[in-house]
Amino acid sequence: MALQPSPAGNLKGDYPLWLVALAALGIILAVVIVINDIYAQVFRTVVNGVWITIFVTLVAFALATLLGLGIALLGLSDSLLLRQTARFYIEIIRGIPMLVLLFYVAFVGAPGIVAAYNFLITPLVKAGFAEPILVRDLPLIWRAIIALMIGYSSFIAEIFRAGIQSVDPGQIEAAKALGLSRYHRFRLVVFPQAIRVIFPPLSNDFVSMVKDSSLVSVLGVSDITQMGKVYASGSFRFFETYSIVTYIYLILTIGLSLALRQVEMRMREVQRR
Fold first, then answer.
1. What Å distances lie between residue 3 and 6, 9, 10, 11, 13, CA to CA?
2. Alpha-carbon gap, residue 15 to 141, rounded angstroms
3. Residue 261 sits in which domain range?
4. Mean pLDDT of the chain
5. Domain CATH number, residue 42
6. How large is the average pLDDT for residues 147-161?
7. Distances in whole angstroms, Cα of residue 36 to Cα of each of 28, 39, 74
């Protein structure tokens, strides 16, 4: 009798031995951190960047999701101009490496943003109600967030497009026949069904952003990677430092992956009822 796939993607009876092995390695390293002064010192230093990593990831992903949804809706509009504009944006942004985009936004886009802002508030400046800002007034962390938002929005837009187009057109026509507006058709008919297709790849992108947030270290943002880089360059403890950096990222990404998998399984159970 053939084994049937389980909701988690494993075969029935195929226990997650990989997770047990990872948990064992994690426990061993945790013990080493506790009993070894060098590892303990490295951990105390590097862990200070965890909150920056979490903040950058959550804010950038939330903004990227909103922007990606907007781009996807433009790409599905009735206007040829809007559809082509959305496709132009997606193809351009997807073709730029994230690191290059980060540098471009930080050192080219930021002066443009500041110049545009100062231009818009010119009447307020003349009236004495506001003051122009300088490029250095735009924090590097927000430049990094903007870059990640732009970079991931193109991929998220494609996820939303695929999910929305997976909905049976007959149900949309039925909603039109009931007199529902475009907004209510999307909120009540399209999105609840599309989320089944959207959630798995969207959650994968979320986990990927946790890892790609390490790129902000090139701007000097004090995330996990930057804290490790600074400590290693001063102490020459490269093995210990980057072992701890890897350990922390694995805790974040694997823990997040398991949590999102549970959410996905719950969604499937609700849909079966």
1. 9, 12, 10, 6, 9
2. 41
3. 18-265
4. 87
5. 1.10.3720.10
6. 95
7. 12, 6, 55
